[in-house]
Amino acid sequence: MALAMHAAMTRAWLIGAGPGDVELMTLKATRALAQADVVLVDDLVNPDVLQFARADAQVVYVGKRGGHPSTPQAGIVAQMLEHLQAGRSVARLKGGDPFVFGRGGEEQQALHAAGIEVDVINGITAGIAAPAAIGIPVTHRDHAQGVVFVTGHGAGSSEPDWAALVATRMTLVIYMGMRRLNDIAGALLAAGMNADTPCAAIESATRPEQRHTLARLGEFADAVSCAGLGSPAIVVIGGVVSLALARDAVNANAGALDAVDAVGAVGAVGAAKVTNSAGTANASDTSNAANPADAQ
């Protein structure tokens, strides 16, 4: 009882740091982080968000990522309880949202069992931010009336019911699915999903190193493999991905127009230089000055 009463005088937060871009972290999250004595940081959190922590805060890295060595969940909870029961306030900092595939629910249960209240501060989950970063809305009246967030990490008895998910005809947003992408695509095809269904994989969404691949379901796993994409990444499957395909086409056309404009601009600059340096220039001189090979 004494420990529970003492712990109740401290503060505990489960904080979502958002998908990666520091500017997508909420104001409430930054304020809570600034109060904590101890910050327990997940592997996928952008280290730049620690600028909001106190200079004297104890920062402990407790990384958890599928397929990599990680701190056992029981060990993370034990550290939280140790600090809280010693009278220190603790911020548990997680990528995305703490309650979306972040084990925040388990940690809340453990703290409640120890008589400790915890404040949950939501973050923007990668399942929404990653698609949005390449122009994909997870719902759209013309394509999907809903969205399903699902983990692709499980296999065997913990495998999602892909047939049931296909039957919903909703957008599928798959977390932690990159290592099993070939199996997932095969299961969706076997469940009757059209091989032409558009798909996207977005790596390191909202970060400067963000990359993505778009392909039809029948070719998706091979396309992602050829592109060399890896974790952390979000997979999006469904008609809404066609909006990213349209956006890429528009960007490609705009890029081609920019290239034409740039060539024209180089020509104009070349002509101006010739004119300024020689005083006069004929058409052939201007053409030659605008040719990159001649300019070298």
Could you name the key traits of this structure?
single chain; 296 residues; alpha/beta; Cobalt-precorrin-4 Transmethylase, domain 1; Methyltransferase, Cobalt-precorrin-4 Transmethylase, Domain 2; 2 domains; five-stranded parallel sheet; five-stranded mixed sheet; 41% helix; disordered N terminus; disordered C terminus
Describe the structure.
The chain has eleven helices and ten strands. It has a five-stranded parallel beta sheet, sandwiched between helices. It is globular, with a radius of gyration of 26 Å. It has two domains: 2-124, Tetrapyrrole methylase, N-terminal domain (Cobalt-precorrin-4 Transmethylase, domain 1, 3-Layer(aba) Sandwich), CATH 3.40.1010; 127-245, Methyltransferase, Cobalt-precorrin-4 Transmethylase, Domain 2. It is an alpha/beta fold and 296 residues long.
Short description:
With 296 residues, the protein is α/β, with parallel strands linked by helices. It contains eleven helices and ten strands.
**Major beta-sheet overview:** 5 strands, parallel
Structural class: alpha/beta
Helix content estimate: 40-55%
At CATH level 2, the architecture of the largest domain is 3-Layer(aba) Sandwich
- Across the major sheet, the strand order is 3-2-4-1-5
Percentage of residues in DSSP E strands: 15-25%
CATH topology of the largest domain: Cobalt-precorrin-4 Transmethylase, domain 1
Please report the total strand number as a whole number.
10
The number of distinct structural domains comes to 2
Radius of gyration: 26 Å
Please give the CATH class of the largest domain.
Alpha Beta
CATH homology superfamily of the largest domain: Tetrapyrrole methylase, N-terminal domain
Low-confidence stretches: 1-8, 259-296
Give the oligomeric state of the chains in this entry, treating copies of one chain as homo and distinct chains as hetero.
single chain
Number of helices: 11
Distance between the termini: 81 Å
